[in-house]
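stage 2 :: seqdesign
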């Protein structure tokens, strides 16, 4: 009886250990999966932010402000050499001797007109160049954004491959607990089989003519046949 009970206990313990081992493995795999999804979500957020930030630069107001800034820089670059050359011409193009006030006034007006014309040309060229430069810079920005998105995609794919390996590894049951469950299961099965075999053995259960006393020769209670006196005086 005791081997049978011990075998049942071992079998139950084996099943409990196996169930916990599988449950722990499932929990580890689930946790690794959620961590992987969180990392992939972060890559997605970074990609969306990069694309949105670049798209906002194409709104009318930001583009106008950027072009105006480029135009101002170009105009300053174009005006500087033109005005410098005009100043040199003003100093060199002088008339010797005494000149009339009318001449000086006309020369000053001419110099002012030339400066104004130089500024107008600089402004015109800056306006034309600003549009070209803006498109060129936007192209560079788009290429930079595309490169960043491709980089994020590569990082995402590499991280996903590594995460899949971690998830698969996390989902594997613990080898030590599996071994313990197997040993307990095998031992429990053996003890239950032994207990059942012992319970059916006639030498130990007392089921049989030799041990139960069920039989004429070894029954625990003796049966004595009655004595009958016959006329002849013989008993039987």
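stage 2 :: out
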């Amino acid at each position: 009886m005791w081997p049978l009970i011990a075998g049942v206990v071992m079998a139950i313990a084996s099943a409990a250990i196996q169930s916990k081992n599988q449950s722990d493995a499932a929990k580890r795999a689930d946790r690794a999966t959620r961590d992987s999804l969180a990392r992939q979500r972060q890559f997605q957020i970074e990609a969306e932010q990069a694309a949105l930030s670049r798209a906002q630069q194409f709104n009318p107001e930001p583009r106008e402000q950027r072009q105006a800034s480029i135009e101002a820089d170009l105009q300053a670059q174009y005006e500087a050499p033109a005005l410098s050359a005009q100043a040199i011409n003003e100093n060199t193009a002088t008339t010797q001797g005494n000149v009339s006030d009318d001449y000086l006034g006309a020369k000053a007006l001419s110099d002012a007109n030339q400066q104004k014309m130089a500024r107008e040309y600089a402004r015109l060229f800056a306006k034309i160049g600003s549009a070209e430069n803006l498109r060129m810079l936007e192209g560079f920005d788009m290429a930079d954004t595309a490169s960043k998105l491709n980089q994020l995609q590569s990082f995402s794919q590499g991280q996903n491959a590594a995460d899949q390996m971690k998830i698969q590894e996390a989902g594997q049951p613990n080898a030590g607990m599996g071994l313990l469950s197997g040993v307990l299961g095998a031992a429990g099965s053996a003890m239950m089989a032994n207990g059942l075999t012992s319970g059916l053995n006639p030498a130990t259960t007392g089921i049989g003519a030799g041990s139960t006393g069920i039989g004429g020769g070894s029954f625990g209670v003796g049966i004595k046949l009655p004595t009958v006196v016959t006329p002849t005086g013989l008993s039987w």
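stage 3 :: structure notes
- The chain is about 80% helix and 0% strand.
- Confidence is low (pLDDT under 50) at residues 203-236.
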